[in-house]
Amino acid sequence: MSFAGPPTSLVPATRSHGVRASGDTSVMPARMTASHLVGRQGELAELELAFREATSGRPGVILLGGDSGVGKTRLVTELINSDAATGALVLNGECLEQGEGELPYAPLLGALRPLVRDKDPVLDAISHGSRAHLAVLLPSLGGGSGTFGGSAGEGAGQLQLFEALLELMEALSTRAPVILLLEDIHWADGSTRAFIAFLARSLRRERVLLLLTYRTDELHRRHPLRPLLTELDRVERTRRIGLSPLDRAELAEVLADLLGSAADETLLDRLLMRSEGNPLYVEELLAAGLDGRGAPPQSLNDAFMLRIEKLSPEARATARAVAVGGRVDGPTLATLTGIAGDALHETLRAAIAENVLLAGDDDRYRFRHALLREAVYDDLLPGERGELHLATALALESREAAPCIEDEVERVAQIATHYAAAGDQPAALRATIAAAKSARRVHAYADVAELLERALDLWPRVPDAEAISGTQQIELLAETAEVQGMAGDWPRAEALQLRALELAGDDARVRSRLLSGLSQTQWKLNRGREGLETAQQALKLMMTVEETDADRAELLAFLARTRVLRGQFRAAITDGERALALANAAGDRCTVGQVLNTLGMARIAIGEVSEGEAQLREAMEVAREVGDADALAVAVCNLGDLLALAGRTREALDVIKDGIATTPQTLRRTFSWMRLTLTILAFEVGDWELARVDQGPARSGLNGVALIFRHTRDAELALGFGDEEAAEAALAAAEPLVRVNSEAQWHGLYGSLLAELRRRQGDLAAARTAVMRALDELEVCTEDVMRIARVTAVGMAVEADLALRARDLRDGDGEREAMTRAGIHLDRLEAAASDGGPVERGWLAVGRAESARAAGRSKPALWAAAAAEFDALERPYPAATARWRQAEALVENDDREAATAVARDAVAVAQKLGAGWLEAELAALCARARLHVEARPARADAVVAPEAETPFGLTPRELQVLSLIADGATNRQIGAALFMAEKTASVHVSRILAKLGVQSRTQAAAVAHRLHLPALAEPSSI
């Protein structure tokens, strides 16, 4: 963990795994770095605050950006040396510019190697499974044979590696606060960028500060770091700090410190003009000539090269070799320069003494600053550059394989880079493919993809490419597509697969395999129907050739799984049973477990609950057998979810609670899903305190369908509590994610929540649209009667409201349309209930009651039946909602005594749950019907005013009277409130009843409540 920049004296030698500068400082020339930090106190204070927060269990991410040489390294060093960071464990990794051949995870390797080298006991404290995954990145750590080795397929390898690294960070942070410092991430490889994004999203309560430095002047418009910075900016715990050049006063302070006295104005002005306030430029300009007079360098490169020209010819040759190699060991330098033995040591010592090179603790040499290396490299003639790159590649290739596997991966990557830079295209093709194979061993998929893309570019320029590379072009295309998918670039994967299909011609075996991969890519691109069609083409071809049972099983398993997600349960069972037989015949236990999981979900969905539960539990046992913790947790989640959909909600909650207790938290993705499921099941059974307390992971820690789950869960809870603003925000965030998703469950859930929100807001047209859009999405692709029933039940409530409103407004056409749609919805609910279970029967009961309400004949008995259905399911919230409607119907039937009893029960449940909106509705009902039930008054913000004009011709005074009628006031109370005689109030009431076309005050209050007419009343000024 070496650290370029300030002298060793600035960094404490006692800090475990701290930041250290290498080199013999006893031979350094006069100091060129200020003895104290200048002009960065505000930025340092912000870093110290972030570290203190991390120490208290609030992890953070710092993006420290600035131009080259502006002082990022110095500022970080000041933080590490500060009293605030005393006792911190500093893990430092650097990204070095290696062109496109940067070693995968290079900064992580640099940060973690000291832990392995020193045999840190924390490595024995992490789980065996995590240790095994870490051994992929750090083979010298040694393998592990834990219970959960993870055999979910290669595609999950990177995620498992990242989760193992997260567990290591968590374990380290229990012992001491951790600063994970990754420098110069503008040079980071793709896999390191992927890990940074994962860690930033996944940190919860670990005492970890992720500190990232980068050059802002390197970030061109299409730089690969830009999307990562944008993503990190969205993480709630991220701070971005930018370093600006020093101003004139700050530069004067630096010069006074360096020179021992105040600089004269001429020197100050000259250096300010030439350095533009960049501290490194100041140092180099001073090194070129302290007085700044004579013939000072015209550019920073000139200043750097003046220092190089002071070296001996041998030292200059060595510097040029290091400029090409980046980090070069002694034997390689001897080969490249022809200098060996003591002569090489003396040459290197001189270069170190002149602050040109540094000796790392890995016995390799590099430049003191990257800008100095760039200057030397740029000064080489093109021919010199090519010769040195070729010589470096040959020197590395001639050496035996490194004893440390991670060093071997780096050696192979460097060989490919140097051959490419030398222009030896055949050798570059061969070496690039070898480097891709090495990078794949450590799950560095972004780097593998980049290397294979380079190989594809080289292919047409290399004669006899197949013989040289040892592979065929179509195989290279297929592998590149596969790895691009693993790296997350699905559009590129599809383009490569289509190109490979063009080359495949009529070869059925090759086409079937390519189509199989293409189908999964199309699914990932949210083209589910197209993906299924492609998979069926692949299967048809696969049956005409001699493929293994395992290949067919894998394809059929994919077909079955995607059919379940699209709600095609019976077709999923057909494909799943075939896949299960083939997987058993092939002895592929991983696929057996996956298929059992799929079959279990499909069987419960079609009502075969006991059979489906048995298969899901068997899938859990297979996962334990093969040591796949992630597959086990997924099966637990699916069992809980499907049991809840089958009406066994409390049982489902117990399943999830047990799963949370036994699932390693390092499986963050699955563990987060469990916690989200826990909150929604707790909400269903009426334990809203648990739902409120355990609200699951932060949104910044989620993506994809997990983020949809979080947003819709937030909306459901917000609607329950009555926070329409929060529900609106959550659904707005979910909308773009749902629209591009192929899974039926999200369209049903999102549509029902949005429709209910719009219904409560009084925007019934938008509510109807939300229902119809959700049903269109569902009925095109699903047999998922559970989701259809819920959406349709909400649609029934919307149509009942529309029918009542149309009747109030004497809109015959509107009433007929609403009744027609309600009839269609009721037919749909009848069909869903005939195919479904107790939950669907509950929604059917609600639909029948809503149908009567739509017809203007709300029947208490139907609402009582609906409440009883949900009582049996132990779901108090929909039961209480049904009782609200039951009480309303009893009031319409003038049975106030029964209405009071029912409303009292509903109010008690609403208050216990904290269902604010329902409590407000019950309070309004009790007020206008004069039911003597203790209920809090309706919230002032629970109504949404319509247009300023009323359709009934009510005067402002009549609106005031109507507002009081809606609150249950008598004529005497109206007269007292509005300072009028009781008889005058009676006249107003009679006129209002006539204008509304109703027979009683209660009916008038109901119409007013439905149309939000009291909200238009002006406050009394009398």
Descriptive report:
- By secondary structure, this protein is mainly alpha-helical.
- The protein has six domains: 8-23 and 38-244, Rossmann fold, CATH 3.40.50; 250-290; 307-380, Orthogonal Bundle (Arc Repressor Mutant, subunit A), CATH 1.10.10.10; 386-471; 712-942, Serine Threonine Protein Phosphatase 5, Tetratricopeptide repeat (Alpha Horseshoe); 956-1016, Arc Repressor Mutant, subunit A (Orthogonal Bundle), CATH 1.10.10.10.
- Helix content is 66%, strand content 4%.
- The protein is built from 48 helices and eight strands.
- A five-stranded parallel sheet has the order 2-3-4-1-5, sandwiched between helices. Strands 6-8-7 form a three-stranded antiparallel sheet.
- Strand 7 and strand 8 form a beta hairpin.
- The longest helix is centred in the C-terminal third of the chain and has 24 residues, at 785-808.
- The protein is globular and about 115 Å long.
